[in-house]
Specification:
Blueprint: H1 2-12, E1 28-32, E2 35-38, E3 43-46, H2 49-52, H3 61-73, H4 84-96, E4 103-107, H5 110-125, E5 129-133, H6 142-147, E6 163-166, H7 181-199, E7 204-210, H8 225-236, E8 239-243, E9 267-270, E10 282-286, H9 288-292, H10 309-324, H11 327-349, E11 353-359, E12 362-367, H12 388-399, E13 402-403, E14 405-407, E15 410-413, H13 421-434, H14 436-439
Parallel strand pairs: 3-13, 5-6, 5-7, 7-8, 8-9
Antiparallel strand pairs: 1-2, 2-3, 4-10, 9-10, 11-12, 12-15, 14-15
Length: 446
């Protein structure tokens, strides 16, 4: 069966972000909780949460049942109608967003959420430009990919999208010659404000940030940084957009990552964990001021599947299950008592681990050739032979029953928010063993 699935895939499926002739997709037979398995009976602990989105784990019975029940009752209905599960999903999201972010525009995923948030900001301000950071990912649609600050943007960069990029804070690889978190925060804010000043504040509609940068390295902002960006936006009349697509819905041990910082954006984008990707869903939470712009004039945007009933039903079930079962609290506890301490212990044992970063079930190891120089284990955007150390690490993880998430010179530890202490320790033990493959490429291991 597995071979038949693989053959059909190779014959007909065109995969994203891939050279089609160089990939070897694993035929997957099923999943449950923190695990999935192939047709040969090999079981993997999912330390990637697929694309950091199955926050509630695979096949949560309450969410599966909600989708089944909704399908039996009403599979679909156009966005222009008021339906119970759409209204309830919006209410439950608004209940958890801060401030007056009480109006919810539903999309099919995170990229479309970013696309519409940017459109709203430009319409609200009448300004063309949007500022975003290097080391970021905001999606693969037209505006979102141009806002992205990693190499996935390069092939689609129009150079005319009205995007201005700047450096966000990252003390381990500081662009500001900072030696402390306080210095990094102060200098990063000064850099942002100077960039804004030279661009002309009256031309900038919005600043968009991932609250905690995800794919580009789980970069936790220093204390005061997000509050400082909020103050700059207020001073210059710039819309502040926080991208919570990856960091939201329990991933960081809070409902939203912004809850760690007490900051309220003007627009908040979400997707992924809102229903763990069981049915495609994303959205924008909109402030009262921006929502009021469209009280008497139409909002020029929409999607056939906006607020799709099956997606909304799964979101309602997901949010209710997370609340009833203490899943957000579990993510915080596992991060504080198991993943954080365990990863820091691993870092002490392995010359390839330069830094450990994260919170909740959202962690990354920055891998290096030399801890003193902090030279990355592989070059930026490495591929082929240059990426061999990371490929060997990934293979070593998989051979031990651990499915990792790797990107550039990092391995991320991002299991489901439902992960148990025993499962988290199982993953750490496998990762600890697998890292010897990376150690062999360090100055100490050479």
């Amino acid at each position: 069966m597995g071979q038949a699935v693989k053959s059909a895939d190779r014959a007909h499926v065109f995969h994203s972000w891939s050279a089609q002739g160089l990939i070897d997709p694993l035929p997957v037979a099923g999943g449950q909780g923190a695990y999935f398995w192939d047709y040969d009976g090999n079981r993997y602990l999912d330390f990637s949460s697929q694309l950091v989105n199955t926050n509630i784990g695979h096949q949560h019975p309450k969410v599966v049942a909600a989708i089944q029940e909704q399908a039996a009752r009403m599979c679909t209905m156009a966005p222009g109608f008021a339906i119970d599960v759409r209204s309830e999903a919006a209410r439950l999201v608004a209940e958890r967003t801060p401030g007056d972010l009480d109006k919810i525009f539903f999309t099919n995923g995170g990229a479309e959420a970013v696309e519409n948030a940017v459109r709203m900001a430009r319409l609200h301000t009448g300004r063309p430009k949007v500022m975003s950071t290097y080391r970021s990912y905001h999606g693969a649609t037209a505006a979102a990919i141009n806002l992205t600050g990693d190499p996935r943007r390069w092939a689609s960069d129009s150079g005319t999208a009205g995007v201005v990029r700047f450096w966000g804070p990252h003390l381990y690889r500081s662009h500001f010659h900072a030696e402390t978190e306080e210095q990094e925060c102060e200098r990063a804010l000064a850099h942002l404000e100077e960039t804004l000043a030279f661009e002309g504040p009256g031309t900038v509609a919005a600043i968009i940030l991932e609250t905690i940068v995800g794919t580009a390295g789980v970069l936790v902002p220093p204390a005061g940084y997000l509050a400082g960006v909020r103050e700059i936006c207020d001073r210059y009349g710039v819309v502040f957009i926080l991208d919570e697509v990856m960091a939201g819905f329990g991933r960081t041990g809070e409902w939203f990552a912004l809850d760690h910082y007490g900051v309220v954006p003007d627009l908040l984008t979400f997707a992924k964990g809102v229903n763990s990707g069981y049915v495609p869903l994303g959205g924008v939470a909109i402030s009262a001021e921006i929502a009021a712009d469209f009280d008497q004039r139409p909002y020029p945007g929409g999607l056939t599947y906006s607020g799709h009933p099956l997606a909304c039903a799964s979101a309602v079930a997901t949010m209710n299950a997370m609340a009833e079962e203490g899943i957000v609290e579990n993510a915080a506890r596992i991060g504080e008592t198991v993943l954080g301490p365990g990863l820091r212990e691993i870092a002490e044992r392995h010359p390839s681990v330069g830094e450990v970063r994260g919170t909740g079930v959202f962690w990354a190891l920055d891998l290096v050739r030399d801890k003193e120089t902090r030279e990355p284990l592989v070059p930026y955007n490495a591929s082929g032979a240059a990426n061999a150390p990371m490929a060997e690490l990934a293979a070593a993880c998989k051979s031990r029953g651990l499915w990792p998430m790797t990107n550039m010179n990092r391995v991320h530890a991002v299991p489901a928010c439902t992960v148990t202490e025993a499962e988290a320790k199982e993953g750490l033990a496998a990762l600890d063993e697998a890292l010897t493959a990376a150690d062999a490429h360090t100055a100490a291991g050479a």
